[in-house]
């Protein structure tokens, strides 16, 4: 700063001139030097406040990225830092017993399936089965409501398997008057047509059939997502593909959890309480004595009841196909035999599946369960599943256990018998418990109980599903993707920086500083939101780099125009350049943001990852390319004396 004062002439005003890099400023006649210094101090104070916001943003970003840096300290983003001491102890907790690591508050950045590997599954949903199940429930509902209207009515409502109608057979032709408009309003999706004096056919509406199929897919996706969330997999992707397929991506899932995940996802989880046919079991299975193919055996289980066994469940299913009466069904239960129980090494030659003869009609289903949780039997120190029924379910359960006291009660998940305890006494408290395999270790029983609770709490799948294929993406392929993406990001950033430095000279340095801060803020934003970084996400970052530089180019060209065309002083040119360019920068980012919001709303999987990264990048770009760059220019011009601007 330099000053020169005009000589004091009687009657003339004293004039003070301060030359700065941004131009020449003249104090009004008669103004003292003090106010000029006050304005200078005011600028410094304002600049300090503005820099304070930048510093705070950087420190917050650094805090959000610290867990990611700690996690990356061993060269991999796998949730396991190289050390749990020092700074790392502020961000994580370690279970001293299991040595399991839990991140608190801020999570490290996670990588998607395409970067860190994981499990890819595709399932087919048998949506037609959902329609058939709905017809079965409706048939039962028709019989129940007719008996509510007329208790002595003789009625049988059935529907042929694979058809979309219900045939109702009445005891008397006069009973057709029960199907009033009010009665049919309870079944709005059915259309009545008389096929005989005592028979009616209720046809399901085609639109309702399509709605049921759509709902089956939607519900299956939601229930599968809930089950996966209970596994603790970071950023799983569950999406629909085609008309009735579901694609599931589980990035970073540990190898020991892969089988557990497949079991949980694949269970249709139709919990049913079915009575075992104790009186007919020995006669039914005993008829096959001496006639069983190789590999099959007739064993005595559960205190003397016969059971046909085999190492392969599918072989048993094929054997009993067509051999069971319509009102009976076969339940299957796995009986493990271990070579080494502690190491969970199964003896595949000795382990087998055993069978139960059960009544096909369920006494109670999982729809009546209000709550399920894991508890521990204090007497035997064994985990079990504690069930609480809704009032209606509690009533049915009490009636069933009262009627069948002394008989076996099969608790079945789909066609597999979880346990078949004997009802020792009526259970009237609305509570029950499922005891699990006695041949398993405590840890195995606890894990099985937790899996069962997850399925029960999140409900049964509305239709059976079948796994079409699975792919395990190895970490080597993921590392190759990371390396290629990082090279692309690095090369792209270097080329952009070189262009800015060569074309805009010292002003390009300001852009480089703002661009570096921009990248830090984007990564911090992803980590703070718990988002997953995928290949499309990295593409979004690269696109954001280009957008940030584009914003600087628009601003710099406006400044050049003010300097060269309009012949404005440097400080004025910078101010008007930023002001006039801001609307163009804002419009460009808003339109891009709208497109990103649409992708976020309607996109799935990798598309959503790209949209999230792009949205974070837009906010960060506006902050760094406009706000931070403006502060750097103002500070630069405030500290130098040159009237020229390197741009």
TrEMBL record:
Residue intervals of the SecDF P1 head subdomain domain: 352-463
Entry keywords, A to Z: Cell membrane, Membrane, Protein transport, Translocation, Transmembrane, Transmembrane helix, Transport
Keyword Protein transport annotated: yes
InterPro entries in the record: Acrflvin-R, SecD, SecD/SecF_arch_bac, SecD_1st, SecD_SecF_C, SecD_SecF_C_bact, SecDF_P1_head
Membrane topology of this protein: Multi-pass membrane protein
TM ranges: 48-65, 486-504, 509-531, 537-556, 581-603, 609-633
Domain of life: Bacteria
Localisation per UniProt entry: Cell membrane
Quaternary structure and interacting proteins, as annotated: Forms a complex with SecF. Part of the essential Sec protein translocation apparatus which comprises SecA, SecYEG and auxiliary proteins SecDF. Other proteins may also be involved.
Protein name, as recorded: Protein translocase subunit SecD
């Amino acid at each position: 700063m330099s000053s020169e004062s005009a000589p004091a002439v009687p009657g003339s005003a004293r004039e003070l001139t301060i030359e700065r890099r941004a131009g020449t400023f003249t104090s009004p006649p008669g103004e003292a030097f003090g106010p000029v210094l006050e304005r200078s101090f005011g600028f410094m104070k304002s600049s300090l406040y503005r820099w304070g916001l930048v510093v705070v943003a950087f420190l917050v970003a650094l805090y959000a990225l610290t867990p990611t840096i700690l996690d990356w300290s061993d060269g991999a983003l796998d949730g396991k830092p190289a050390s749990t001491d020092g700074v790392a102890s502020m961000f994580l907790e370690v279970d001293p017993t299991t040595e399991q690591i839990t991140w608190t508050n801020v999570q490290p950045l996670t990588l998607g399936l395409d970067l860190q590997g994981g499990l890819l599954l595709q399932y087919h949903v048998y949506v037609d089965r959902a329609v058939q199940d709905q017809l079965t429930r409706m048939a039962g509902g028709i019989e129940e409501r007719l008996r509510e209207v007329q208790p002595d009515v003789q009625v049988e409502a059935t529907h042929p398997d694979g058809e979309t109608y219900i045939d109702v057979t009445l005891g008397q032709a006069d009973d057709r008057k029960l199907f009033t408009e009010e009665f049919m309003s309870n079944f709005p999706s059915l259309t009545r047509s008389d096929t005989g004096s005592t028979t009616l056919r209720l046809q399901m509406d085609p639109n309702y059939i399509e709605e049921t199929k759509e709902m089956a897919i939607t519900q299956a996706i939601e229930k599968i997502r809930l089950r996966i969330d209970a596994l603790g997999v970071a950023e799983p992707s569950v999406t629909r593909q085609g008309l009735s397929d579901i694609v599931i991506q589980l990035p970073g899932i540990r190898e020991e959890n892969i089988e557990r995940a497949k079991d949980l996802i694949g269970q249709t989880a139709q919990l049913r309480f079915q009575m075992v046919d104790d009186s007919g079991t020995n006669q039914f299975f005993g008829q096959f004595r001496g006639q069983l193919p190789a590999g099959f055996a007739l064993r005595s289980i559960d205190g003397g009841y016969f059971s046909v066994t085999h190492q392969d469940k599918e072989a048993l299913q094929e054997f009993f196909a067509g051999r069971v009466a319509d009102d009976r069904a076969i339940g299957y239960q796995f009986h493990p035999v271990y070579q080494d129980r502690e190491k969970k090494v199964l003896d595949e030659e000795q382990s087998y599946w055993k069978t139960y003869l059960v009544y096909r009609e369920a006494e109670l289903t999982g729809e009546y369960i209000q709550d399920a949780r894991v508890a521990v039997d204090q007497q035997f120190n064994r985990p079990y599943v504690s069930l609480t029924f809704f009032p209606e379910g509690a009533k049915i359960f009490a009636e069933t256990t009262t009627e069948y006291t002394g008989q076996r009660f099969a608790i079945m998940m789909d066609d597999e018998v979880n346990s078949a305890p004997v009802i020792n006494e009526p259970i009237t408290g609305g509570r029950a418990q499922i005891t699990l395999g006695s041949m398993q270790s405590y840890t195995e029983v606890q894990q099985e109980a937790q899996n069962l609770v997850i399925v029960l709490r999140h409900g049964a799948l509305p239709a059976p599903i079948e796994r079409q294929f699975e792919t395990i993406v190895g970490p080597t392929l993921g590392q190759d993707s990371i390396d290629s993406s990082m090279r692309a990001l690095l090369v792209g950033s270097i080329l952009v920086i070189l262009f800015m430095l060569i074309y805009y000279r010292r002003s390009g340095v300001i852009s480089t500083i703002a661009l570096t801060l921009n990248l830090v803020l984007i990564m911090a934003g992803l980590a703070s939101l718990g988002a997953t970084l995928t290949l499309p996400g990295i593409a979004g970052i690269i696109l954001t780099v280009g957008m940030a530089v584009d914003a600087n180019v628009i601003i710099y060209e406006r400044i050049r125009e003010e300097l060269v065309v309009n012949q404005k002083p440097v400080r004025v040119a910078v101010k008007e350049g930023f002001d006039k360019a801001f609307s163009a920068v804002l419009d460009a980012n808003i339109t891009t943001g709208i497109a990103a919001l649409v992708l976020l709303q309607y996109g799935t999987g990798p598309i959503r990852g790209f949209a999230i990264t792009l949205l974070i990048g837009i906010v960060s770009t506006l902050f760094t390319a406009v706000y931070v760059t403006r502060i750097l220019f103002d500070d630069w011009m405030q500290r130098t004396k040159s009237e020229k601007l390197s741009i």
